[in-house]
Amino acid sequence: MTKGSYTFLSDRAAIAVSGPDARGFLQGMVTQDIATLDHAPMAYSLLLTAQGKVHYDFFMYNHGNDIILECEKNKAEDLLSRLRMFTLRKDVTLKIMEIQVIAVWNCGDDPDLFSFAHDLRHAALGYRRFFAQGVEIPAFTGYERVDEKFYHELLIAHTVPNGSRDIDWESDTVAELNLDRLNAVSFTKGCYLGQELTSRMHHRGLSKRGLYTVIITGDALRPFSDILADGNLIGEMRSSANGSGLAILRHDSLELLGTCGLKIRDGI
Predict the structure, then answer these.
(1) How far apart are the first and last CA of the chain?
(2) Residues 61, 121: one domain?
(3) Which of 33, 120, 121, 203 is 20 to 30 A off residue 109, Cα-Cα?
């Protein structure tokens, strides 16, 4: 019997944020409270547009005197440029790092993973850790190494968006992606970019759409294609794998899914 599964996530990079003003700078920018890192090794967070749309998502780690933002590799340069726009006179240094990221799941509370961080988006996602270039990676004795596709299927099963596969950058809101339920946002910290709309939609339940895990009973739709029911637009497909997928759907349209080859997945 194996202890669990693990995979290398090949599409990840990191930005090191350093300098005396690093924590204060990030606190005024990102959705998560930087103080979370005082009692947890990792936190999940977002950078929004001024209109409250999701622009980037990333994990934050304490790393010596730096804070590391682990992000999607093809978004790293863009995120770096975006952050630099707001540094102004702050004593902050930003640089991209090459890293390797490992996710481990179905592993219980294995003490051998003491150096890994709980993925607080969902308990089923287990642990993750980044390794800087040159750092020795453990052998993971007793664990089964699997292809990344199994991790992608795990995210779909638990309705967790996977970066550019599932997020329409600068268009989707926090509430539409359920990111407020995935520990990406602090609703008790001070101001940050896009806070007003995000807080209002969360507390008043204003979002008319949300992210759902669906079972594909007909032909699979391409990612980001419209979902039509009787000629009416009810949502948009996102990524899919092995007969399941994620879709942004109008909350009032779920009973129409059967007409377009989809049904809501229950029991997750």
Answers:
(1) 25
(2) yes
(3) 33
